[in-house]
Amino acid sequence: MLTFLFIALLTSQTFASGSFGVRGGGNTCVEHFINYGKAIHGNVNNLDYDKEKFLDKVKTAEIVEVQTEMVLWEGNQYIAMNEPSANRIYLSQKWCRESRLPFQNNKTALIAFHEILGLSEPGRDKNYEISGKLYQSSDLSEEEFYNLAMTDGLDRKIIQSDTYFYARPSEGYPHRAVLQLSESNYMLAASIDCSTSFAKGPDGNYVMVPPLMVMLGHKAEYKFAYTKTCEDLLDFLKFRNFQNVKVAFLVGTTSSTIYEVITK
To answer: How far apart are CA 34 and CA 26, in angstroms?
Structure first.
């Protein structure tokens, strides 16, 4: 048994309590867990488990984030726990916190695999007979699973861009700004456009053009995964009056998508 997956301690509580703000409710921990399930289903093909049943549970299970460090159940504490009779999985605050940190020893992908298997094929993975082989069978590291979960399956690798220290507004364009690596070299700059528009696609239908960042010196274009990420960046620059800023981007290497902005 992989003992790092749970801690068994005697407590006075015998039930799992938590927030039932489940899938679709804006709960990022729950959505991240679901994305881990999708990443596992899409990349683990040579283990003996029922992929169709597994995906069905990824889509239909009730995922609950409890408001305690560990899941409390029948006198024990678990980092995560499944309840097959209720088609439900409980996630602890510990799992939610560690799922945002791509470190191999966290084993968050393995835990997600084990808990979903507990619903799709109850009893088959009781001692991690299947999930314990996750990393060897998929040839993906915890960091790569993290990236796939973070990007909803688009990118196995995410890089951090250069850090921009200078910013200036674009005159006459309230939804735009320019970031620069140095105060004088305009070529080492990134142009931010947080406005959204529509353009005619190859099939003749109009599609939305997302907010963009164009790295002028590299002639590279990246789209923001979420409009609000770009808008929040612009608000941050305005709050700082475009002075004394540090901005970097987490960018997917395959999709050319900006997933997060790091500001200081």
So the answer is: 12
